[in-house]
Known about the structure:
The chain is of the alpha/beta class. It folds into two domains: about 5-155 and about 350-390, Nucleotidyltransferase, domain 5 (2-Layer Sandwich); about 160-345, ATPase, nucleotide binding domain (Nucleotidyltransferase, domain 5, 2-Layer Sandwich), CATH 3.30.420.40. The chain has helices at about 45-55, 65-90, 130-135, 145-150, 160-165, 205-215, 235-240, 260, 265-275, 280-300, 320-335, 350-365, 375; strands at about 5-10, 20-30, 30-45, 95-115, 120-125, 140, 175-180, 180-190, 200-205, 310-315, 340, 385-390. The strands form two sheets. Strands 1, 2, 3, 4, 5, 6 and 12 form a seven-stranded mixed β-sheet that branches. The protein has a five-stranded mixed β-sheet with strand order 9-8-7-10-11, sandwiched between helices. Strand 4 (about 95-115) and strand 5 (about 120-125) form a beta hairpin. About 50% of the residues are buried. The mean pLDDT is about 95.
Amino acid sequence: MGSRFAVGLMSGTSVDGIDAAVVELVGNPGEIRQARLIAFDNCPYAPHVREEIFRLFDRKYATIDRVGLMNVRLGELFAEAALKVIAKAGLTAKDISVIGSHGQTLYHAPEAELIDGYPLRYTVQVGEGSVIALRTGIPCVSDFRIADMAAGGQGAPLVPFTEYLLFREERRTVLLQNIGGIGNVTVLPAGGAPDQVYAFDTGPGNMLIDGVVSRLYPGLSMDAGGAIASKGRIHEELLNQLQQEPYYAQVPPKSTGRELFGSEYVERLLAEQARLGLAPEDLAATVTALTAWSIGDAYRRFIRAKHPADVMIVGGGGSYNPVLLRLLKSEMEAMRVQVQTQEDIGQSSDAKEATAFAVLADYTVAGAANNLPSVTGAKRSVVMGKISYP
């Protein structure tokens, strides 16, 4: 088995910056046995860049010229992030075999729209791979999702492929819960084969929390450490109302994003806050509770009967919110599922998704399939990602 270094780049639905990881991959290309984190860095977006990305979530504003410009603009920023983390690892560009870049999702439409007899699904990620490759001198794999969607899948979630490689166990059923802007869960049945793995988006992760906090507390973009929610009380009537969202009952495979839980949803929350006379901290506490409940609800509805789990390992930014984590533990431990964080098992919540795209890119350049049809709903396995050469 050989080993080589790869870089993974990720910008998620929270749009808080570019996560960049240098990873040592052990195993032949397309047959990875281990991914060891060498260096990690988060490169925050400048406020004006973040604001422009958020504007592009609005389809009325996201004209072709603006999206095209942001595509190459983020390509430059992603390239800078890659070079920065390579230097942090004490390596040079010549030491890196490939860069895998997820890019920044602007729009994701996984449900087929029948037009002229064609079931059309589409997705838009920006952060041009050709720019990244030319600026770094390293081949770059980008645009991962679209190949899975062309094969009839949702193009999401993609990380379960790498989670199966790196986290599966013979004797325990493991749940891997990511809490980024959106929450998603991967089910790794004990001793299971790849086609037994399944995963789906559980609902909002930090997106609603960040959304209401940024509107109610000018200058803040998140509830750091759950400080605001910890001072509030959960409003049970509003929580019950929010739990009726049809997405939660939708049978997997399924995925969601800012199209459902974005700015329009936040506006409705603020309207309900005004109607009910809620204090800002009470609204923050209520949407935090909603995220925890939605994760527990997904387990009750779609997982527990088939694969009673032993442990849930939580990653993503939400794992650093002690209020959210406490509520989630209350949900899951009542069903005899132990809750741990990535840090509890010696891993990094911050670096997990960036690491995944380094692994996915290695499979792409090897011409090896890197999706899980059982997860995405694709009709067959495909090689995801488009390769740009320097």
